[in-house]
Design brief:
The chain is an alpha/beta fold. The chain has one domain: P-loop containing nucleotide triphosphate hydrolases (Rossmann fold). It is built from eight helices and five strands; from the N terminus they run βαβαααβαβααβα. The chain has a five-stranded parallel sheet, sandwiched between helices. The N and C termini lie close together (8 Å). Bound molecules: adenosine monophosphate. Adenosine monophosphate is lined by residues 31-32, 35, 52-53, 58-59, 64, 85-86, 88, 92.
Length: 188
């Protein structure tokens, strides 16, 4: 099976993705990570990617498409991909569908980890108290949350219409969320 996981920063997406990867022997394809690796190679392409990421914009759909196709076309990862940080817009969602069908695959499930902004703020505050420090991380976190909401909304709507979307209540404990995700996957 191939999955997509969505969740705002601070929702515990990384923890849940790790769980799914281990339990179902999947491969986590994080476009952010692939792009950062390309920067490290110091290629011409890497320089372009660096400018986009550092300037706070998205990397072009064309570059991301090429990066993702490397994995989708590889037999090693066939029907065992979990997409993280991708697709970021509707064009990417459509491209993903085309790429998967080119290699006789499809998306089987889309998980959205849902956590309110209030909870994210509370988590940051708790961390601050524990670590006894004050910084501007709350402001940054709010900005990231809003950007996430704005950019992923149309993509999530797209998968909802295709009946692939499952919304997971991310306000609960890690174990409860693990269990729910396991139950959903077992029904595929
Ligand atoms: P992330 O690690 O997912 O937060 O990604 C870090 C940065 O990489 C983003 O801010 C974007 O500039 C770029 N990036 C990651 N994934 C994509 C994507 N699917 N499309 C375009 N740019 C991306």
């Amino acid at each position: 099976m191939n999955l997509i996981i969505f969740g705002p920063p601070g929702a515990g997406k990384g923890t849940q993705a790790d769980f799914i990867v281990k339990k179902y022997n999947l491969y986590q394809l994080s476009t952010g990570e692939i792009l950062r690796n390309e920067i490290k190679k110091k290629t011409e392409l890497g320089t372009k990617i660096f400018s986009a990421i550092n300037g706070g914009s998205l990397v072009s759909d064309d570059i991301v498409k090429k990066a993702v196709e490397v994995f989708i076309s590889d037999k090693k990862y066939e029907n065992r991909l979990i997409f993280d940080g991708y697709p970021r817009n509707l064009n990417q969602a459509k491209t993903l569908k085309e790429l998967l069908s080119k290699y006789n695959q499809k998306i089987d499930l889309v998980l959205q980890l849902s956590v309110s902004l209030e909870t994210i703020k509370k988590r940051i505050l708790e961390r601050r108290i524990q670590e006894k420090r004050a910084d501007d991380s709350e402001e940054i976190a709010i900005k990231r949350y809003k950007t996430y909401e704005k950019t992923t909304e149309p993509v999530i709507e797209y998968y909802k219409k295709l009946n692939l979307l499952k919304v997971i209540d991310g306000e609960r404990s890690i174990d409860q969320i693990n269990t729910e995700i396991g139950d959903i996957i077992s029904l595929i």
